[in-house]
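Posting this for the archive.
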Amino acid sequence: MIQQETPALPQGKDVLNWKIKTLARSPREMMITQSIFIAVYLTGCTLYMWGGWIMFSDSLYSLVGTVLALAGIFAYFTGLLIRQKTIYNYTLKTDGATVEYYLHYPDFASSFFKGIAIFVMLVFVLVAILTGSLLFLVGPVAMAFIAAIKLLNWENPVHHRQTAPWSLHEFVTVDHTRLMVIIHCDDITTGFAARFPSKALMD
């Protein structure tokens, strides 16, 4: 994982440590985003199927393959992007608190992405050799090739945040529904949100 540059962290004694994997956004925001995506995606899929119905009606394999591909794309965007969870590692200290957070991916994600990138690049090179023309690697294919190279170097970035000294905080907001405690300074935008895995730990 890529460690992002961090400012000076609280140096006090550790009081409490915990880890939680959860959705970064509120349920309301998730529902709105997911509903809009589903509506737009289903509309696009319906128009696509309607426009190519003559071809699909002549070939059952094309119809089944297209439906499976569209279902796979839908599952990818919904499960991996819209509803992707974030892992938070909290440390509560005597003079402040810190959190390290990063997106949750399966353990095999890095190898999987690199495998896809290598496969795509090999396919492009093989097609260019078979066609005998490097013009194949110009245009959209060149953009896809660059994207594959970036995917080959993919790392999951790790982010850090910390509170101001405890003495500077003015008030606290407690969200019992989402098991969150948010501490604020005079400027409400500098708040620090702590997510808890259970009500017992939050209390």
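The two ends are 33 Å apart (CA to CA). The chain has a mean pLDDT of 77.
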